[in-house]
Sequence to fold (279 residues):
Amino acid sequence: MALMASYPSIVPFLNIVPPPGYRLHQVLPLDRLAQQIRGESAILDIRRDVLLGGEVVDRRDETLILQNGVWANPGAGAYELDPIEGSDWLGGQSLGFVETRIAIRNGVFSWRREPGSYVVFSGAGRKTFLSDNSPKFSHPAVIQQIAAYGKWAEGYPACVVDPDRDADQSVVLINPYERPAVVTLEFEGLELTHRVRVDALTAKRIAFSKILDPVARCWSGQAFVSGSNRIVMFFVSHSMKNAANINTMEHSDPYRGASDWYPFTRALHFKFRTRNGLR
Fold:
């Protein structure tokens, strides 16, 4: 008889510190989280660290109690965060990020991934947008890429840079690990590469308009990011005049192995999910 998988914790997941004018709202999906617990009662330890410039600048701990299949204190699953001093969204060179950890004190989980939920970013006079929780590690496609090729490649298919439409695109690069990483950005249809170093436990925002000028005033297509050391990233559509006016924040899509069509030396020309324009 095969043994059932048992895990003492959920894979940590990451979100960006809210840009100016926004507040982050996170509510854990408690009903689905309870389904991942073996048994009807458990105590969960929740830790949310805010990191900036390689240091933990804020830490909040909560305890969630499951009794006979019912959460005794569901409010402990909620978390809100305002912009923090020093997280320079507009400049882009030093952003804060949030790492959420969930451990079980007197039981086990049957599955170690967070059961799929979103955080909400909202603010007065701002468009509300959603962002998913990006796992810190254990992404099967990325593991397979690195095992096969010694590097990974990810991207996003629906990027638009157009000053006439006040449209810009950025990629937020989060390095939650203990060693620095260097990544390469490439752009569909352009003979242009841009390398970025992200120090350990730091994050940056790279605006595409600053990279593309003067190569291309307007551009649309797929953007690709690759490297040897893992990076967590989000692609952000926003105003060119004010990068804190945000349209969408999306996760990246990993390359999934179309090597019959493209050799890995051109790994940044892969097919990703099709999405149509800005929303």
